[in-house]
Amino acid sequence: MNKRTFLQLLTLMFLGSHTKVIASQQESKTRKKSERIVIVGAGLAGLAAAKALQQAGHQVLVLEARERTGGRIWTSNQWLGMPLDLGATWIHGVDGNPITDLADEISARRLITSDQKSVIYHADGRVFSQVEEKQLRKIRKQVFDLVRKAQDAETDVSIQQAIAQLVQEAAQDTHRLNLLNFILSSDLEHEYAASVRDLSSYWYDSDQAFAGEDVFFTQGFKVITEYLAQGIEIHLAQVVKEIHWQQAQIQVHTLDQVWRADRVIVTLPLGVLQHQDVHFVPELPREKRQAIAQLGMGVLNKCYLRFAHAFWPQAVDWLEYVSNSPGEWNDWISLQRTAQLPVLLGFNAADQGRAMEAWSDKQIVASAMQRLRTIFGASIPEPIDYQITRWASDPFARGAYSYNALGSRPKMRDSLAKPLQNQLFFAGEATSKTYFGTTHGAYLSGLQAAQKILMT
Ligand SMILES: Cc1cc2nc3c(=O)[nH]c(=O)nc-3n(C[C@H](O)[C@H](O)[C@H](O)COP(=O)(O)OP(=O)(O)OC[C@H]3O[C@@H](n4cnc5c(N)ncnc54)[C@H](O)[C@@H]3O)c2cc1C
C-alpha cells in the first residue's frame, strides 16, 4: 500500500461511513456553542454536510437555487412507473463505497449492470467478430501504453498529443481510425466527460475507484438525497449572488434576501465558480482562483428513448457503436434486462455532447434513430417519448463533472477545498482529490467540510 492510499484509508476510517460518527466524536465540543451555518447548494455534498452538522447540534440552513434538491442527482418521474436518472445513475464500485452504506440504511433496491454484458457494432451495423474484438483490444493497449509513456515524460501533454503517433498511423485506414476514435470516446471522453485534447496525460486518472459492481437505484438516485434532506431547513429558489466574508458574520446575498451566518459551506459546482455567477467579497485568494480556472469542467449528456417494446438484444446491458463520426452515439445502455423497461439510454460526452446541446430535441432524436436504424434496420419503430439533458447549458451546474485538465494538478483540488479564515468552507465533487467526478466524492467532501468545522 503506498503512502497516498494509506492516508486515504485513514481519512475514511476517521470519517466512518456515517455522519453520526462525526456527530458523536464532536458532541462535547458542540455542546459548548451552537453556530449558525449556511450551506450553499442542496446537492449531495451540501446535504451530507448539513446532516452531519445538524446532528452535531448546529443551526443549519441550506440555500438552493433550484426548485428541487439533489443538484446533479436528478431523478425524473415524467414517465409513470419509470423513474429515470438524468444526472448520476450508478454507485460506481459498491465495495466500501459510502453511498452503499446510505443505500443499505434505507434498504434502497438496486440493480447491477455489467460491462461484460455488451455487444459491439460496426459503423455499418454489423456485430463485431471475435477477431475484430481482438483487434480493438490491441489498439486499446497501444493507446494506454502511449499514455503511460507520456506519464513518465518530463512535461505533461494532452492525451491527444500523447497518442498523436497512433492517430497518424491510422489516418490512411478508415476502419482503424474508427476503432481508435471509439476507444478515445468510450474509454476516456465518456469516463472523464472531457475531450482527449484537454485531458492531462499525467493526471487524468489520478482518482481512485472502489471495487465491486456498478449498481443503480430502481427508484432513482434521489432516494439518497431525499433521505439526507430529511429534517434539514432547506430554502429552494434561493439563487446566491454574493458572499461577503472576512467580517464578524458572513453575509450570503440571494436575489431577494441577505442571510447571516457564523460559517458558510460553499458547494457550488466548479462550472458555476468558473463562470463567476457568485461574487465573493473580498475576492477569493489567488491560489483558489487559479485552481478554479485550471481544473476542467466536463460534459456528459443523456438521451433516453422509450419504445413500445425492445427490438434490441435483451440479454445485454451495453450496446457499443463504433461510429464513423468521432464521439457520436458510441455508448448505449439498455434498461430491458435489468429493469424490464423498453428504454435505451444514449450518451454523448465532451465536444460532441457540448455541440449537441445547441440542437433541437427533434434533431437529437432523429440523429439517435438514424444510428439505431443502421444497426437494427429501417423497420424499427419511432420512440414513444424521449428525455434529453443539457448539463453544460444548465446555469446551476455548467457541466456534468470536473476533470484534470492539461495545466492543472491534483493538489489544486486541495486548494479548492481549503477553508478561508475558519469562516468559509468548500465542498463538492471538484474538491475531492481522490474521488472527483463522482457521487461518493461529493458525499465525502461534504462530510470533510463538516468535520473541519467541528474540529475548529
Ligand atoms: C449526466 C451525469 C452523469 C453522472 N453519472 C454519475 C454516476 O453514474 N455515478 C456517480 O458517482 N457520479 C455521477 N455523476 C457525478 C455526480 O452526479 C456528481 O459528482 C455529484 O452529484 C455532485 O454533487 P455536488 O454536491 O458536488 O454538486 P451538485 O449536485 O451540483 O450540488 C450543487 C448545488 O448547488 C446549487 N447551486 C448552483 N448555483 C447556485 C447558486 N448560485 N445559489 C444557490 N445554489 C446554487 C445547484 O443547483 C446544486 O443543487 C454524474 C453527473 C452527471 C451530470
TrEMBL record:
- GO molecular function annotations of the record: tryptophan 2-monooxygenase activity
EC numbers listed for it are: 1.13.12.3
Q: What class of enzyme is it?
A: oxidoreductase
The family line of this record is: Belongs to the tryptophan 2-monooxygenase family.
**Leader sequence segment:** none
Q: Which InterPro entries match?
A: Amino_oxidase, FAD/NAD-bd_sf, Flavin_amine_oxidase, Flavin_monoamine_oxidase
Has UniProt tagged this entry with the keyword Oxidoreductase?
A: yes
| Record's keyword annotation contains Oxidoreductase | yes
The Amine oxidase domain sits at 44-454
Key words of the record: Auxin biosynthesis, Oxidoreductase
State the species of origin.
Allopseudospirillum japonicum
Q: In which pathway does it act?
A: Plant hormone metabolism; auxin biosynthesis
State the superkingdom: Bacteria
- Residues engaged in binding substrate: 347
Name assigned to this protein: Tryptophan 2-monooxygenase
> What reaction does this catalyse?
L-tryptophan + O2 = indole-3-acetamide + CO2 + H2O
Residues spanning the membrane: none
Q: Which residues bind FAD?
A: 64-65, 240
**Per the entry, which co-factors are needed?**
FAD
UniProt-listed GO biological process terms = auxin biosynthetic process
